[in-house]
Structures are given as structure tokens and as C-alpha cells.
Amino acid sequence: MAHDHDHPHHDHGHDHAHGDDPHAPVNEAHGVRPESALLERALRELLIEKNVFTAAGLQRQIELTESRNPELGARVVARAWADPQYKARLLADAKPAIESLLGIDLNLTPELTVVENTSARHHVICCTLCSCYPRAVLGIPPAWYKSPEYRARMVSEPRAVLAEFGTRLPDDVEVRVVDSTADMRYMVLPLRPRHTDNMSEAELVALITRDSMIGVTVLPEPRR
């Protein structure tokens, strides 16, 4: 079945470079280039010198960013599975629903939309122009998410890329690629596995993975 690609207008201000081999494997680590690290350091020192922000303020922001991790997103998913009213709020307006559950302030973060995976439709997230990612609820993105190979190939051949993550969907399941932007981030509400009806929210949280909330994997049934 043909796949859909939701590609809103981007306003990243970044070049769209796919690298020399857009068909290379995507699930491998990509380090930071030395020239990029030097540029970041020079820019950071210049902004501190110009009093745009302080070194202490930057350190606090780094610590806040590093404190965010996929367990936050897993708590949101588990509550949505357990509480239909919360799920409806989450899908209608994600940020206030997440703020009320987790007690975090998302006021200064980009807009966030939660898309639901079902037995008939599977969403997977990418960012074709850079690496926009819902860091507020999933933490720091994995290296493969930022790679040119993943960004290029997920749009053009999503089923092949999903298969590299071990995800093989039936032909009658629609695959919809959702393209994050500088102004809008996305998170997947994974399809709830069977045989989890009697599990507590804490037990459900333990089942939910970062990759399932990006959409590159599906959650298996728990061992009984």
C-alpha cells in the first residue's frame, strides 16, 4: 500500500543535505564532526561574551534538557491507555494534557501533537530538514534520528527502513510519515499490546520504549 507523508512547511533555516549515500543503513551511530564542535564552542563563547546568556544559565538549561528522558513520554502513553478521557484530551491538545499529568512547564517549547497508532494506521516520525524532536517528553534524540540517511529514506521508503528496525507491518496497514518542524513536534501514541488490560500504569510504563513513541517499532505482547 502506498504511504502518506505529512510534510508541513518548514522554517528551520538549515540546509537539507542527505549525504553521499541515502541508501546506507540508518540505525548506526553518527558522531559530531570536529568542525561542528569548534563552531559550537566559538558561538557559545561569543554569546556569553555579548551577555546574550550567562554560562550558569546555559548550564542550567543543559541540566534541564538532560533530565528529560523517554520515561516521561511513557507515563503519558500509559495514562492515555488507562484513561479514555485523558486520551481524548491528549489527542485534542497535547501540551496542556501533558503538563497536567507530569507537572512540567511546556510554555516555551514548540507545539506538540500526539498521533495515535491503530491496527489500520501506523505513524512514524522524522524531520527531513534537521532533527526536530519532542525533547520535552522523550529527552535527547538518538543519533540515528538525526542522520541524513534516516531523514531521507524514511520519507521515500518507510517500510524498508522500518524493516531495518525489525518492524514489518501487514500490507493493509497504512504507513503515515509525519514530518516534524521547528514549530511543531510530534510524538506517537503506540498501539496498546494485547493481554495488558490487567496491568497497572507502572507496569505499562515499563513496557513502553522510546522507539515505539517515535514509531520505528511496535510493542510486543508481554510474556505471560
Topology of helices and strands:
Elements: E1 4-6, H1 34-49, H2 55-67, H3 70-82, H4 84-92, H5 94-102, E2 111-116, E3 121-126, H6 135-138, H7 143-146, H8 148-156, H9 158-164, E4 174-179, E5 184-189, H10 201-207, H11 210-214
Helix pairs in contact: 3-4, 3-10, 4-5, 8-9
Describe the structure.
By secondary structure, this protein is of the alpha/beta class. The chain has a domain at 69-214: Alpha-Beta Complex (Nitrile Hydratase, Chain A), CATH 3.90.330.10. The chain is 43% helix and 12% strand. The protein is built from eleven helices and five strands. The strands form two sheets. Strands 1-4-3 form a three-stranded parallel sheet, with helices on one face. Strands 2-5 form a two-stranded parallel ribbon. The radius of gyration is 18 Å and the shape is globular. The chain starts with a strand and ends in a 10-residue tail after the last helix. Mean pLDDT is 84; it is low at 7-30.
